Amino acid sequence: MATPSKAAGPGAGTRFEGSGIWPGMREGDGRTARERFRRRAAGPWARAATALWVLWLAWAHAFAAQIPPPPNHYLNDYAALVKPETAARLDQRLQAFERETSNQIVVAIFPNLPPDTDQFTFTTDVFRAWKPGQAGRDNGAILFVFVREHQIWIQTGRGLEGALPDAVCKRITADVIAPAFKTGQYDAGIEAGVNAMIAATRGEFRGTGRTHAQTQAGARHDQGSGWGGLILILVLFLIFSQMGRARRRYGYRRPGGGGGFWIFPSGGGSSGGGDGGFSGGGDGGFSGGGGDTGGGGAGSKW
Q: Which ranges of the chain does DSSP label H, i.e. alpha helix?
């Protein structure tokens, strides 16, 4: 049994040796009090940290919502600035240019800059989300237009910085696009700017005759055809295996004897368009090839 003793120091109460508790306290009360103290001390910090975490998540979600998802067109007019027929014509031209050179030039027209961001940060983030240009070549570029701010900007991939240096980007935006915009000729300005970017970057790289989207679709088609052929072979093998067991069980033999049953897949797979490749109907659409930007580019106002 614990014996009472005086705690050292004036005014100290009596405690029981061997028990570690004070009179009137039950075993475990000291630990509970310490836990309550720690909870009270940590409470404000925990609440503040939680609030900051929630605010950060809300900010990140709002910022991500400002970046449009990767498009499937080369010309993307979110402000309805150009006529649909102009947009369709330029889309086809830029698609043909990718087939020829593998360069991916994209147009992005916005009604305004999103709030709480600057133009350079936003254009860089859009570029890295859309990834124009081929991986390893980084031969992409985006022509940005922000209508409310009257801002034109060309952002270039690393691989096109030689063909589209800042000085050339500045000249295209200021001397080619801006004069047409000042007179309200937006279709003419966009088309002239696209043509100038095509002229500046032609010859830097050689294309494959397909867009990145068509190459991806062809790979998916070939992969699907290969799995389809394997499944067909497996099903036929199981069917004829069952037939063979049935013949042996009931004493039936095929006339003429002979060896086993062989299956030869014709051509090694299915053909799409007569040459063993994939026929994508000629459109393909835009799909970022994995390009990146080093922040190069320039622009002007109108």
A: 29-66, 84-101, 119-130, 166-171, 178-182, 186-201, 212-250
